[in-house]
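Exercise 7b. Backbone tokens:
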């Protein structure tokens, strides 16, 4: 396990692991009660800790504010007997909290506010939030008091590691997520093995690699088995949002070991300083894979999100078209819902097969599967699975924003979402909308802008824009947004218009020049 998953005070003990096991059955009991009674009294403890490799996370602008992405969890306050305890490293702007509460359909915001407890550890250091909590026993004691009856409570996190296991034990409530002992299935190497076991096509390559010799051997083997391959992707087993991936280009048609070794040093490595040696050090700790980079005239990057329930059942959550970019073209920028009709049912079926395989291995909780699709010579779509993410994904906040705002449901057979009135819903979303021109804007300024432009979400039409991660706006000029429409075209037009409004407003108020995010917008819209 990587260093970010090592917990303090000597690591996991047998006693702690045994205690964690005794908490697991409680989650099933709470889940069954919630399904049987929508007014079931319970407490959700939300700890949006980004317990991933901190060096990889540091490459993400405004990463500390990603803790605000799970604010959609206040949807649970629609149940008048539900309580939510939401914990962050730094305080969330009170106006942002009120923004979400006032959007709750059919709920008096003041009543919901009394059942929401926002807690901050007042620690901005770049470490996982779970670790900060574990270091504060007095705060943990206060949280236990707020929870009350722990038989009717559970812990939800962005992802699960040994830190979250320790935190669950300290709080005395079950973790609504994967057992950290099973995390291997969500690594790049574990994903490839599971795809093979489930009979799902995936790119040619090799998993279980740990050093330079392994990388060179795997690249040579790939070239020999697939002579026409031009490029390959080197991936860290636990890379975050595509930041651990590097693209290798073969130097000639018949490279030898020396050719490969020389070409590796010319790659733009995602190692902070761009140094091959730094990447190799991390590769040695995490391990990784080599995969053929699929190249075609048209390539799409859909994904499916699933949930394995505490009783072992697998169900569909959503499908998306992912928008990727960055230097390697593999960094997650945003998404559109739902995935295209051409292959949506196929990736849903693959998601079920992955879920069944994971469930047989004891995994519960959310997971996502990323794919690439491209037309073959006959024009039919070819689909290959890329990786499994045993955690919430970048597509999680926008989909739950859709649920949060419309009170609608997904049709598990078709993968389409309908509002209560039967109207089908679509959205375009990103958590990577940023511009130097937006720096200096406060959430209050943003609320003023959207109220004037008329794009704020309306319960009358069940369309409009929801913003999140607004805490990153002033310092980093970055935020997330989900644009919900009744058609794909309406959602896309709303997305473009909102960016135009933000650019115009920031120009007029001397926050920057217009067009700051147009390269991003062009990239996003080119994926239509």
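Sequence design result:
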């Amino acid at each position: 396990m990587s260093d970010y998953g090592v917990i303090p005070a000597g690591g996991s003990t047998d006693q702690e692991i045994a205690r964690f096991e005794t908490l697991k059955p409680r989650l099933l009991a709470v889940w069954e009660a919630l399904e049987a009674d929508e007014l079931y009294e319970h407490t959700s403890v939300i700890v949006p800790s980004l317990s991933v490799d901190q060096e990889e996370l540091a490459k993400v602008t405004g990463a500390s504010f990603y803790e605000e992405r799970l604010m959609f969890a206040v949807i649970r306050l629609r149940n008048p007997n539900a309580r939510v305890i939401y914990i962050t490293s730094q305080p969330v702007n009170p106006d942002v909290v009120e923004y979400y509460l006032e959007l709750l359909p059919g709920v008096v915001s003041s009543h919901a506010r009394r059942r929401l407890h926002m807690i901050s550890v007042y620690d901005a250091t770049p470490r996982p939030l779970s670790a900060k909590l574990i270091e504060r026993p007095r705060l943990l004691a206060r949280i236990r008091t707020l929870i009350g009856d722990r038989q009717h409570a559970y812990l939800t996190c962005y992802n699960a590691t040994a830190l979250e296991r320790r935190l669950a034990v300290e709080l005395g409530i079950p973790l609504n997520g994967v057992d950290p002992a099973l995390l291997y299935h969500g690594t790049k190497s574990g994903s490839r093995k599971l795809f093979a076991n489930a009979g799902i096509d995936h790119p040619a390559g090799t998993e279980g690699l740990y050093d330079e010799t392994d990388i060179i051997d795997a690249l040579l083997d790939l070239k020999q088995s697939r002579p026409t391959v031009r490029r390959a992707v080197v991936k860290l087993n636990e890379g975050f949002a595509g930041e651990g991936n590097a693209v290798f280009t073969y130097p000639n048609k018949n490279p030898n070991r020396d050719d490969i070794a020389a070409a590796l040093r010319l790659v733009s490595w995602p190692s902070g300083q761009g140094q091959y040696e730094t990447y190799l050090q991390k590769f040695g700790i995490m391990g990784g894979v080599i995969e053929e980079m699929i190249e075609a005239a048209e390539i799409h990057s859909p994904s499916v999100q699933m949930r394995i329930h505490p009783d072992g059942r697998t169900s569909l959550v959503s499908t998306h078209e992912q928008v990727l970019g960055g230097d390697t073209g593999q960094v997650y920028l945003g998404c559109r819902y739902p995935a295209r009709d051409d292959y949506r049912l196929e990736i849903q079926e693959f998601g079920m097969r992955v879920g069944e395989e994971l469930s047989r291995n004891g995994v519960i909780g959310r997971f996502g599967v990323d794919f690439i699709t491209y037309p073959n010579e006959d024009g039919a779509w070819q689909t290959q699975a890329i990786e499994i993410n045993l955690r919430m994904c970048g597509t999680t906040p926008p989909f739950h924003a859709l649920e949060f705002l419309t009170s609608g449901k997904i049709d598990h057979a078709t993968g389409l979402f309908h509002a209560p009135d039967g109207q089908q819903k679509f959205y375009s979303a990103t958590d990577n909308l940023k511009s130097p021109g937006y720096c200096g804007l406060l959430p209050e300024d943003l609320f003023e802008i959207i109220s004037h432009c008329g794009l704020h979400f309306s319960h009358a039409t069940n369309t409009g824009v929801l913003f999140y991660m607004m805490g990153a706006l002033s310092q980093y000029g970055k935020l997330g947004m989900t644009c919900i429409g009744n058609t794909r075209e309406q959602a896309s037009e709303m997305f473009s218009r909102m960016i135009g409004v933000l650019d115009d407003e920031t120009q007029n108020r001397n926050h920057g020049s217009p067009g700051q995010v147009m390269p991003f917008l062009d990239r996003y819209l080119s994926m239509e």
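Instructor comment: The chain is about 35% helix and 20% strand. Residues 184 and 190 are 5 Å apart (CA to CA).
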